[in-house]
Amino acid sequence: MMSIAKEKKVVIFLDYDGTLSPIVDDPDCAFMSNSMRLALNKVAQYFPTCIISGRRRDKVYDFVKLNNVYYVGSHGMDIMAPLKCSVNASTSFHEKAVDEKVIEIRPSIKWDKGRALEYLLDTLGFGNNGDAIPLYIGDDKTDEDAFMVLKNRGEGYPIIVSSIPKDTKASYSLRDPSEVMCFLLQLFRWKRSSSADS
Ligand SMILES: O=P(O)(O)OC[C@H]1O[C@H](O[C@H]2O[C@H](CO)[C@@H](O)[C@H](O)[C@H]2O)[C@H](O)[C@@H](O)[C@@H]1O
């Protein structure tokens, strides 16, 4: 993957519950660890990074509290981009600046995590030009739509988070959020060292 990634732009998509935070009994206590937050912040410095959750977008932001990632809530219905990122304002988004310095985009059609992934890739300028390596990491059934999109596009890495074998469209797996964190840190270190070399 690292050799392919030298030529292309890695774009990271992550689910929240079960991927960035462990599954716990009380949904209001699904806190992300500080070490995971640091890892996420690091990769987001080098790669466009998007969190796509079934939760409301503001709830996910409350847990993550980073301003350099995209937040996609309600299974893709509600998208918030960091202002710094290059959102193409000429496409047909409903767009408005809000207090926390974000652009809010609300698609109005039938939507799921797979469609949100395609929409964001388009928005970031990676429609179907083969210039991106999208990684999608998720643990539940709603993430399968996104795995399917990557399969159909024939590009990227659909990665399921599971410690047991599962019926899935993903081609790769990580066991749990701690392995997700290690993976993110490896990506960060690889990019940092390859940037220093060039
Ligand atoms: O798309 P996600 O970010 O994975 O969100 C999916 C649902 O996650 C939450 O429920 C799950 O996690 C809870 C906390 O660990 C757990 O208690 C629950 O059993 C899981 O289903 C959240 O509460 C839902 O609203 C999300 O749709």
UniProtKB/TrEMBL annotation:
GO biological-process terms attached to the record: trehalose biosynthetic process
Protein source organism: Dioscorea zingiberensis
Protein name as annotated: Trehalose-phosphatase
Catalytic activity, reaction form: alpha,alpha-trehalose 6-phosphate + H2O = alpha,alpha-trehalose + phosphate
Matching InterPro entries: HAD-like_sf, HAD_sf, OTSB-like, Trehalose_PPase
Keywords recorded for this protein, A-Z: Hydrolase
Keyword Hydrolase: yes
Source domain of life: Eukaryota
Cofactor field: a divalent metal cation
A GO molecular-function annotation: trehalose-phosphatase activity
Pfam families according to UniProt: Trehalose_PPase (PF02358)
